[in-house]
Design goal:
Layout: H1 3-42, H2 47-82, H3 84-88
Helix pairs in contact: 1-2
Protein name: Flagellar biosynthetic protein FliQ
Membrane topology: Multi-pass membrane protein
Function: Role in flagellar biosynthesis.
Length: about 90
C-alpha cells in the first residue's frame, strides 16, 4: 500500500462524509435562517424556538435523504472492501 493510495482513500472518505452531511447542514441552515428572520420580526427571543424547528428539520432531512445517504456509505464501504486484495498485493 503506497502513500498515494492512503491519501486517495482518505480523500474519498472525506468526500463521502461531506456529501452525507450536506443535506442535514442545509436543513439546519435554512431552518435557522427562517427562524432568525421570524424572531427578528416578532422580537421573540426564545431559545427553544430556534432549537426545536432545527431538530424537526434535521429529522425530516434524514427521513428524506436517509436512503441516499445509506446507499452512499454502503457503496463506499463495499468499494473499499473489494479493493483490499489490490491494496495488499
Amino acid at each position: 500500500m503506497t502513500p498515494t493510495m492512503v491519501i486517495d482513500i482518505g480523500r474519498q472518505a472525506v468526500e463521502v462524509t461531506l456529501m452525507m452531511a450536506t443535506p442535514l447542514f442545509l436543513a439546519a441552515l435554512l431552518t435557522g435562517l427562517i427562524v432568525s428572520v421570524f424572531q427578528a420580526a416578532t422580537q421573540i427571543n426564545e431559545m427553544t424556538l430556534s432549537f426545536v424547528p432545527k431538530l424537526v428539520a434535521i429529522f425530516l432531512a434524514m427521513v428524506v435523504a436517509g436512503p441516499w445517504m445509506l446507499t452512499l456509505i454502503t457503496d463506499f464501504a463495499s468499494r473499499l472492501i473489494i479493493s483490499i486484495p489490490s491494496m495488499i498485493g
